[in-house]
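Changelog-adjacent note: as of this version, every example in the card shows the full chain rather than a window. The one below runs 145 residues end to end.
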Amino acid sequence: MAKPASKAGKKSSEEVFAGFQALRAEQRQLASKISELEMDLNEHKIVLETLRGVEGSRRCFRLVGGVLLERTVEGALPELQANLSRLPAALAALHDQLARKGQAINDYIETHDIRLQRGAASAPAPDQPDQPAHPPKANVLVPSA
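Full-length structure tokens:
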């Protein structure tokens, strides 16, 4: 009777794999968001550089949520500068979340005794051009029992 009780508390390999995949997906989403904000930061810097050399009463346009807004340069500059000053803090927070997510993945791997194996697929020989090239497998999750 002790064995069924211990198995009920233990996750199956499919559940462990699904949990691991979910953590990795969250990590990829964070990395994607960081990349997006870094691009926004660079775009804000470029636009601010450009607009600083322009007369303040000149019209400019800004796309916000799919809506094109008409502003003057002197009205748009403070908004852009405020956004630019907030972006580094947001990036720092996301980098911190990414580091915590990486630690959570490492803890999950240790807790469930997971081993990642790198697949090693060989490239087709040059004298056999008819065979399709198969990309090497990235990671294989192997739960140890």
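Structural remarks: Residues 1-8 have pLDDT under 50 and may be disordered.
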